[in-house]
Write a structure and sequence with these properties.
The chain is an alpha+beta fold and about 350 residues long. The protein contains ten helices and eight strands. Helix 6 crosses helix 10, helix 7 crosses helix 9 and helix 9 packs antiparallel against helix 10.
Length: about 350
């Protein structure tokens, strides 16, 4: 949906008179569309609450241009509420959720806006990490892994709402995630490459023993972190949060790093720990050894290939990418193939 910032301002101000009345007198300035956020419509909102200046982020649930099968902002908001209550986690505080789609054509939520800069998707090439010294890069990377491990130490019970009822036993995080992404593959409008059948058979043949459910970020990447003065100020993006467990996040982080370096023919930046050192950092913070990481890396590649092909297909249909920008043109697909061949 195409909307103007001025129209959005007027709607928000009318809505705030009731929904945010508990905060006091709220007046929103004209929102500004945020950069990035390809999977959800995201706006930056400056507001006056009484005499105070507030900086918020508005996230609107996608309708008709969905990268994810179930992009529920209500679920994301509940994750943020739960995490923001945890001491020591830099998760921007939630402000309000609006479940009624009548106002903006879809549900939406507001959360506080953190200060800081995120590394871009191609962080080995440009941006925050590329501009930093090797020592500063290493420190930011290590903090990201430490915060991820802190997420993984959380008790899963408060996140029970993330289970997908009826797909698989809720006590088995791996079974839950396999079923969830099988459903995603059936739903996604993407070319059904033989590689996906090969990967799924590999995953089934080598499936690890059932493990208890554990909270997982879902999109654990440096790009979903804000840094200021080399310290992390925010963990962001909870659209694919799950009970898939710690290894699903760590393998996602490692797969993505290889995808934006090795699969693109880009040298990794000096100072960034390699896969073995990254796993060792996580193990030191988590207080245990990783399990079945080879399996989880293939599973991360399988998921990433499906998601990125869905996003690319939407971009091709919208004319933002050339018609052949899929399959072998997709570094996630190439890296998944290479991992299976190793």
């Amino acid at each position: 949906m195409t909307r103007s910032g001025d129209d959005l301002r007027d709607i928000l101000n009318d809505w705030a008179g009731g929904a945010l009345a508990h905060l006091g007198d709220v007046t929103c300035a004209t929102p500004v569309a945020a950069e990035g956020g390809a999977s959800s419509e995201t706006w930056l909102v400056n507001a006056r609450v009484g005499a105070d200046h507030r900086r918020w982020v508005l996230r609107i649930e996608p309708r008709g241009h969905q990268v994810y099968q179930d992009p529920s902002v209500a679920r994301q908001y509940r994750v943020i509420e739960t995490l923001a209550a945890e001491p020591g986690l830099p998760v921007p505080a939630p402000v309000a959720l609006e479940a009624d789609a009548a106002l903006l054509g879809a549900p939406f939520f507001l959360m506080e806006r953190a200060e800081g800069t995120a590394p871009p998707n191609d962080y080995h090439r440009r941006g925050l990490f590329a501009d930093a010294t090797p020592a500063a890069r290493e420190a930011m990377w290590a903090e990201g892994i430490a915060l991820m491990a802190q997420l993984h130490r959380l008790a899963p019970a408060p996140f029970a709402f993330l289970a997908a009822p009826g797909l698989a036993p809720e006590s088995d995080g791996i079974a839950q995630e396999l079923a969830r992404w099988d459903a995603y593959r059936r739903w996604a409008d993407i070319p059904q490459l033989p590689l996906y059948d090969r990967a799924r058979l590999w995953l089934e043949d080598r499936r690890p023993a059932p493990v208890p459910s554990g909270f997982a970020w879902g999109d654990a990447r440096p790009c979903n972190m804000l840094f200021a003065g080399q310290r992390c100020t925010a963990l962001l993006d909870w659209e694919t949060a799950s009970l898939g467990g710690a290894e699903s996040d760590l393998s996602w982080w490692l797969f993505y790093d290889r995808m934006v370096s090795e699969a693109e023919g880009i040298a990794r930046l000096d100072g960034l720990p390699d896969a073995a050192a990254t796993i060792a950092l996580w193990e030191a913070e988590a207080g245990r050894k990783t399990q079945a990481m080879d399996w989880h890396l293939i599973f991360a590649g399988y998921r990433f290939a499906l998601i990125s092909e869905r996003a690319r297909n939407l971009a091709i249909k919208a004319g933002r990418l050339p018609a052949d920008a899929w399959g072998e043109a997709n570094p996630a697909v190439r890296l998944l193939r290479d991992l299976l061949n190793d």
